[in-house]
Amino acid sequence: MLIAFLCVVLSAVAQDKRLTSTARKNGPWVEQVPSIRGEPGYSWEGVYKNDRKEGVWKKYTVNGDLLAEETFKNGVLDGMCKYFYPNGKISATGMMLAIDIEGQKDTVIVIDPVTNEETFTEVVRKGNSVRHGEWRVYDEDGNMMRETYDRGELTNSVMGNQRRATQAPLPHEQQSGARKKRND
Q: Locations of Polar residues compositional bias (predicted)?
């Protein structure tokens, strides 16, 4: 009985060591996400560093089938990602690029509509990622389509040896017949 009690206490102490003195998550974690609003539940497995996901995280169905391998940096998708069909075949691979890191702060001017008084307000950003570079998307038969992204914007799509138009030209582009270069 004493041995069982010690095992329970030691496992609780070991789990608490994953939290820093400021109650931040650190080290390996497994998280269960229950099903909600018709979406199936899943589990996450990966490492936290200072309360943010870091490195490769794997996502599994409730039956243990691999759904995704995603790379995180500072809690935001940033790096190679792979997604899988329920039968284990790969459905997509490509790179994600973090364009906002969770917790970054901006200061904006807010104007009171009644008094026209300007005040500076601090806004905390949420983490945000976009597709970047070449993505390979597979159907369940193994046919591949290549998509190229530039910071989230689809620039090229090729299925087999056939290039497909990615976007219809905008009205100002149709007049001259050529796309104008954007200055970002």
A: 154-165
